[in-house]
Design a protein that fits this description.
Uridine Diphospho-n-acetylenolpyruvylglucosamine Reductase, domain 3, Enolase-like, domain 1, 3 domains, globular
Amino acid sequence: MNFEVISPKTTPELLNAIYDNQTENFRIGAGFTDLINQFKTQETEGLILINLTQLKDDNFKLIIENKTNFQIGALTTASEIIDNKSIKENFPVLYQAASKLASTQIRNVATVGGNICNVSPSGDMTAALIALKATCHIIDCDGNERKELLSSFIRGLKKTSLTKKEIIKNITIPKNAGQNLKSGFEKVGSRKSMEISIVSLAYHLQLTNDGIITHAGVACGAVAPTIPFTTSACEFLIEKNINTISENDKEEFAIKVLEYANPISDIRASDWYRKEVLFNVSKTIFGK
C-alpha cells in the first residue's frame, strides 16, 4: 500500500483537507473495517487518505438527546451505541443491530457513518436507522449544510447522494411518540454475529397503551441492491392492534414486505431462499 495520510484534528482542518484535495483521489476513513479490505484489491498509488480518528468535534462523535430527536455523531462506534442506555431503551432495533454487528473488536472501531457510507445492502446499523426514519446531516467544504432522509440518501448499489465536497456530520432519529414499543432486529445467517446477513429485518413500532400501532418503521437488509423502507407494509399496520392481529393480517403484512425484495443468489443463499426467509421472519415479529 502506498498512500498519503492526513489526520485533521478539528472540523475546519477536515473541511480544508477535503477542499484542498478536490482534484485528487482521496478516501475518508474512521474505523477502517471496510477500507482495509478494499485496499487489498484496489490500487492505492497516489491515494490520499483523510483519517478521522483524531477529529475532536462533539457533533461528529457524541450521542446527544434533544427535545425532538437523538443526534448520533457519524464517528460514534457500534460499541458506543450498545453502551448507551437511552439508545437501548428508546431504540431497541438500533441497539440489537449494533450488538449483532461482527465481533467485539470490530464493534469497538466500526462507526455509524462508515456503516452507512459503505452502502452495503446488508449493513446492520443502516437497516435499523432506515427503519427509524433517520436523517443524515451533511456538511461540505464550502460551509454549506443540508439534510436528507437516510432512505433517500442511499441512491443505489454502492451509491449515495454525497458529492466529493461533502461528509456526513451526524444522524438524527425522531423521538418516539410514546413509550410503548415493539422494536427489534432479526438477522439470519449461517452463523451468529460474525456472519454477513443472509436476510435481516429491522422494525420499530410505536403503540398506544391498548396496543394500537400508531407509527411503524420496517426495513429489510440483504434482499435488494439497497435497504428498502417498506412503506406500504408500514402503512398497512397503522391502527391495527398488535395484541389481536390476525394470522391473515400477519400474512398480508409479510406479503407487502416481500414486495420490496429483489435478492440475488450468491454463495451464502439463493434468491428463493432469501425470499422465503424474509416472508417467514416478517410474520414472526408479532409473536405467536
